[in-house]
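Per your request, structure below.
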């Protein structure tokens, strides 16, 4: 069985697609593309598709991941293009690699987020960030199915800063963070890197922490985009490509042949 790892996006209005809605759309794309899927055993076989750490509904993302198992070998790039064509614009398959290494989910150590705060002056946001980072612990509340839970939002934050320009869908937009070019209102942009921990700390939790430590309360809900998720470089506070190990790994059966001076082992 061949296994392929895919990176896909949720852009524009499609950020409001729930994970279950995406699953249905992806399964339709598999059928339209005639992908030779491998199936699980048992009385109710299911196509072998596994999802990793999906973003919440309402959040845009440039870095969602899933893995599929195939009953026949396919070229990863051709498969990517077929699936991308079969999905609606905004749900875009942008990368595909053959699985050559284990423990992929363990590599998703952190996420990098972009938070757009319309109606907030950049100087006010920068001051709130400084206060949040200066705190040793920032307790926030979140309502769960088991009731109200209190936890620390500060410990999971690896990096938080006000950035000079908005990067959305891979391109710079506007003239920086001082004004929204569409409305002329103040607009601050924050870059956030959060470690994947238990309990999971989400961008909304960090915004709650900014409200608690610095009384920062945007007049409209923040627009949140996940830019990356993967291994965390603690020194730089950046998130690296989780597919890099698969790209770099030597395919099975492609090891270089022994040279003329090699000796046979006993």
């Amino acid at each position: 069985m061949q296994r392929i790892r895919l990176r896909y996006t949720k852009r524009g209005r499609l950020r409001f697609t729930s994970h279950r809605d995406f699953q249905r759309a992806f399964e339709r794309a598999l059928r339209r593309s005639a992908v030779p899927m491998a199936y699980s055993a048992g009385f109710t076989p299911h196509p072998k598709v596994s999802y990793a750490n999906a973003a919440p509904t309402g959040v845009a993302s440039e870095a969602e991941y899933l893995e599929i198992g195939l009953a026949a070998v396919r070229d990863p790039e051709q498969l990517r293009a077929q699936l991308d064509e079969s999905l609606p614009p905004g749900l875009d398959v942008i990368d595909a690699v053959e699985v050559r290494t284990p423990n992929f989910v363990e590599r998703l150590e952190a996420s990098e987020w972009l938070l757009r705060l319309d109606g907030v002056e950049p100087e006010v946001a920068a001051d709130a960030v400084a206060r949040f980072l200066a705190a040793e612990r920032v307790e926030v509340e979140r309502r769960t199915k088991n009731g109200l839970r209190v936890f620390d939002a500060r410990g999971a934050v690896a990096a938080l800063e006000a950035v000079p320009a908005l990067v959305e869908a891979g391109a710079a937009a506007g003239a920086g963070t001082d004004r929204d070019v569409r409305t002329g209102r103040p607009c601050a942009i924050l870059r956030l890197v959060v470690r994947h921990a238990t309990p999971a700390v989400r961008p909304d939790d960090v915004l709650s922490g900014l409200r608690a430590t610095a009384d920062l309360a945007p007049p409209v809900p923040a627009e949140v985009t996940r830019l990356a998720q993967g291994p965390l470089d603690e020194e730089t506070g950046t998130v690296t490509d989780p597919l890099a190990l698969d790209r770099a790994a030597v395919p099975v059966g492609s090891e270089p042949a022994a040279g003329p001076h090699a000796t046979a082992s006993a």
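The two ends are 34 Å apart (CA to CA).

Regards,
D.
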